[in-house]
Amino acid sequence: MARTIAIANQKGGVGKTTTAVNLGASLAAAEQRVLAVDMDPQGNLSSGLGYPKTEVGAHVYHVLGGEMSAEEVMLDTELEYLKLLPTTTDLIGAELELVDALDRHQRLAEALAPLARRFDYILIDCPPSLGLLTLNSLVAADTVLVPLQCEYYALEGLGHLLSTIERVRGSVNPNISIEGILLCMYDKRTNLTRQVAAEVRQHFGSQVFESIVPRNVRLSEAPSFGKPVLLYDIDSAGARAYLQLARELIDKHARS
Amino acid sequence: MARTIAIANQKGGVGKTTTAVNLGASLAAAEQRVLAVDMDPQGNLSSGLGYPKTEVGAHVYHVLGGEMSAEEVMLDTELEYLKLLPTTTDLIGAELELVDALDRHQRLAEALAPLARRFDYILIDCPPSLGLLTLNSLVAADTVLVPLQCEYYALEGLGHLLSTIERVRGSVNPNISIEGILLCMYDKRTNLTRQVAAEVRQHFGSQVFESIVPRNVRLSEAPSFGKPVLLYDIDSAGARAYLQLARELIDKHARS
Ligand SMILES: Nc1ncnc2c1ncn2[C@@H]1O[C@H](COP(=O)(O)OP(=O)(O)OP(=O)(O)O)[C@@H](O)[C@H]1O
Ligand SMILES: Nc1ncnc2c1ncn2[C@@H]1O[C@H](COP(=O)(O)OP(=O)(O)OP(=O)(O)O)[C@@H](O)[C@H]1O
Ligand SMILES: [Mg+2]
Ligand SMILES: [Mg+2]
To answer: Cα separation of B133 and B128, whole Å?
Structure first.
């Protein structure tokens, strides 16, 4: 049975997509069967895996609307064990069109249910908001992975995200839990990074992944080639960090 | 008459709030009368100017709902010429509550109209999405200032933002235009930054501000003290960049 993980944080630019692309690729490199789902109308996960908007046909928008199945829009990537449900900016329309549907928050969960046996991991990249698309992702998910930029504004928003997850647990998805908090864009030269990291570890203890993703320019260069960093520069600090995170996740799940 | 500028980009974490806080403070330091409006439920502009959620009473949510006037929720800041319309996460409720209101996209424009004579600049910080809160800001604005992080995903989203602004110009706000594109988090050591900057200047020419905001840790430290960077570290590269941007704006508007 697949473990479905929503990669969410309403704070913008904290590394959600970079984590979805590179954790997905790293798990696939370890021969875990992975499905990456792009629930952000920006479509950065799709282009980061080689499918810019111009090359996407049917996508997640059509799945949420009930016109197509997830299976029908699924795409291959450069990695054998990694598949993608792509998206384009049309997905913005879903937020308005689903407003009156009674099951509006369960559309993604229903679409992914038939795929649970085919994958070991389903990773969902969320937009920087707590609207219907993120809500759909939290309902479909078993756990939430929270990328956290080691900066003040990102830390400030963490409480609101966690209380939103609590509310989802108390209503539409009683099983949801925190997969972990991932420290991203970690710059060991600055005091700010160390202060934020210390504060997060103090409050959240073992919920913080041991793996840390350093600030590494190779991570921001790889998307312009439509490749995960392990296919762009396997020796980079960024590639090593995500391979380590994949190992940490696999080991943790093997124990449970 | 105030010049109302929406600071918008649906890509997350590109420097919208940092620009709203520090451009606002720099214009106020030049004795321009400035109103900063927080239209992002994250409330980062408010805390960046010294008002975290816990210290905010009535706010923008109550103004959009018609319960209070902008004047009534306005707050002073540490700078004499800079005022703030604060917000908290309650603002998220406005997106749902206004869905059925016929004038839902004009609420902010109507609320700011009575203030136009009292300010030289009104700066509106937008959330990382193109929903109703950003739409309200684009309707209320004379121009749009687009902070652009010099990275691939940010560049990818620029086309969609500009076509959205075109659609707004063709419908609810015929007068809107681009104030300029501001290169943010510019790291002159990386090829990626230089490539993105060159591509943006090639496509947008004089619409790109001459002032560039470098990546500067003092800009990300200042918010934890609730201060604009010019009150935290006036000698920093970040402070100088925003003072220069303010000067560029004032000179440009003096000529027109
Ligand atoms: N560890 C890192 N080191 C250097 N650059 C990074 C790192 N992680 C992400 N980036 C870059 O920072 C920018 C923001 O990251 P990303 O787009 O993954 O964040 P996001 O949370 O998905 O943003 P959004 O909120 O817009 O969806 C991107 O340009 C990305 O390439
Ligand atoms: N030029 C800069 N140099 C260094 N850090 C910066 C710079 N500009 C912004 N930052 C930091 O980068 C992070 C993102 O910036 P900011 O929050 O202003 O972006 P935003 O576009 O408002 O994000 P959101 O999309 O979440 O509203 C913040 O932690 C901020 O302190
Ligand atoms: Mg993203
Ligand atoms: Mg912001």
So the answer is: 10
